[in-house]
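Hello support,

Our group uses your service weekly, and this is the first time we've seen a run hang past the timeout. The protein is ATP-dependent DNA helicase. I'm not sure whether the cause is the sequence or the server load. Input pasted verbatim:
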Amino acid sequence: YSEETGPFYALAELNELLKSYGLNLRKVNLPSVDLQCDLFRLSYDAMEEQSKANANIEKLNSEQRYAVYKVLHAIYEYQTDMPKCFFLDGPAGTGKTFVYLTLLHAVRGKGDQAIAVASTGIAATLLSGGRTAHSIFKIPLTLDATSTCNLKPNTSEAKILLDAKVIVWDEAPMTHVHAFLHW
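Update from on-call engineer: The timeout came from a worker crash unrelated to the input. Re-ran successfully.
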């Protein structure tokens, strides 16, 4: 985010976090912000995104390129028997984040919605338009076997997720198992 818009987005993110505790910015004496609830539907220039994707694809090694093309094929080739969920694994420094960025740029370069989430705030900052999984999916901060996500159907947040061609989730294994079982 820019220096100008960053504080507003930070407050909006904080407000989303406070909601899980039944609070909001006003209740904790912080200034409220008037941002649309579809915070993570960022506007991207498709030509710029495609240019970034093309530049990144040129830098991919053969294994990374295979992964990118395999996922893009699954997204854009409408075959019902094709896997739609992929798990990218590798040691630190092998270019997983670069693959994620390439996928995000490629999908956005086609004018489609691509959602970037991560299990930690630090990892989310490394992804273009990244947000935490807790924020996007309304996952409670404290999880147990009865926890459920607080994402309501028929909301603009739910519609954005349904409209997304891809959701890239970095460090998904770092998220508590109950976040996956009960949403």
